[in-house]
Structures are given as structure tokens and as C-alpha cells.
Amino acid sequence: MLTLSEKLTLLALHDEKGSFVYSASLSFPYGLAGAMLIELIEQERIALVDGKVKVRNPKSTGDTLLDETLQLIRASEKLRDSNYWVMRIASKIKKLPERIIDGLVAKNILERREQKILWVFPSKRYPMVDAQPEHEVRQHIRQIVLQQQKPEQTDITLLSLVRACGLINEVFSKEERKPAKKQIEKLTANEAVGKSVSDVVTAVTMVVVG
Predict the structure, then answer these.
(1) Helix, strand, coil distribution of the chain in percent, nearest 5
(2) Strands (E), 69-136
(3) Which of 44, 67, 150, 197 is the most buried (most CB within 10 A)?
(4) Average pLDDT score, the chain
(5) Pick the CATH number of 4-209 from 1.10.3630.10, 3.40.470.10, 3.30.450.20, 3.40.50.2300
């Protein structure tokens, strides 16, 4: 079974090239940080209380990345909002994207390939080995958005991250994008963590461009 962060990673990777699609190149680490928060909320380790992230249960989740994230939040001397934690997790959890990918490689969904650009600069690629898991994620998203299949809360959180990371165009055809965006906005209107990811990505983009 795929975690939320693994689903997001598969959608953000080009199936054949094994590199992150351009639209997600800046936003993806923040999307993963949001996924960490959401997974901790779903496991009732943390909660959003009056807009702040509060630890409810410090017990180990059994997942190294989630436990590191939980400990990072616990170590804070004051309560912070989810925007702060999206930024903080993305910068403080070492090699977050690579470690998610390592898990997908271990599950034989991705393959790790190393090559050199211009025979000098090392480059890693992660092409798809087993396309079925990603296909199922895509099809499920499409059924919810285009066929208005009733979503679970986990579906709504994934859609919020897909939107925040600029991945809508990777899932829907040109003709489908306008109604898809409208439906996703409707479904995710109250999803706080996804909005935090969007806010952080917007802020970072303004800094980079400006």
C-alpha cells in the first residue's frame, strides 16, 4: 500500500525519464512536507488546533520519516502554524525526496539509474519499473474529479497536494483541465495543509523570481 507521500512522488516523476516534471521542480519538497503533516494528522499524532500544529500523541509511528517529522514538531518551544511547518520540514528533514524514492525502489516500483551529464556531472534518474501503482492512483483521481465519485478524506488531501504542486496538468488532458481545476478547488476548499503548501510555494516563487 502506498503512502500519501509515495503517491505524490509517483505523480511528480516523469514515467520514462525518471526525473521530476518541470511544473513540480520547485514545489515538490514542500508538497512532501505537507504530506508528512497530513499523514501524522491521519495517524492522530498531531492535530490542527486554532490554526496551530499541536502534538497529540508522541508515540512512534513505525515510519522513520514520520517519526523524524514528529520529533521536529515536538522540539519546538511554541506552537506554530502549518505554513511554518511546511517550510521547516522541507528544509530540516534531510534528503526527504530521495528517501521517499528509496522506499519506492525497495517496493520495485521505481528503478535507480545513475549517469553523467557531459561525461562529468553525476545525475540520478528513477524510471518506472511497475507502472500499475501510479496508474491506479491516476485513475482513482480522475474518477473522483471527472466522474464525481465520492472521495474519502485521504483523496481530498492528495488532491490538495496535486493542486499545490502544479500537477493537475500531469493528470488531466488539455480539454479536461478547466473543469478538473474547478472541481478540485471545490473539493479541497477546506483542506488547510494543502493551502499551506500553496502559500509557501507562492512565497518561495516570488522570492526566486523577484
Answers:
(1) 55, 10, 30
(2) 80-81, 113-117, 121-125
(3) 197
(4) 91
(5) 1.10.3630.10
Query: What is the number of other CB atoms lying within 10 angstroms of the CB of residue 86?
Result: 29
C-alpha 206/C-alpha 164 separation (Å) is 15
Q: Give the residue from 5, 196, 197, 205 showing the smallest Cα distance to 100.
A: 5
Residue in the structure block whose three cell numbers are 499541536: 54
Q: What span, in angstroms and rounded, lies between the C-alpha atoms of 47 and 41?
A: 6
The pLDDT value given to residue 86 = 96
Residue pair 9/30 in contact (Cβ under 8 Å)? The answer is no
Q: Which of 56, 29, 30 is nearest to 41 (CA)?
A: 56
pLDDT at residue 46 tops 70? yes
pLDDT of 117 higher than 70: no
Q: What is the pTM of this model?
A: 0.91
Indicate the length of the chain as a whole number. 210
Average pLDDT over residues 72-87: 95
For residue 104 the three cell numbers come to 519506492
Helix (H) or strand (E) holding 52: strand 52-55
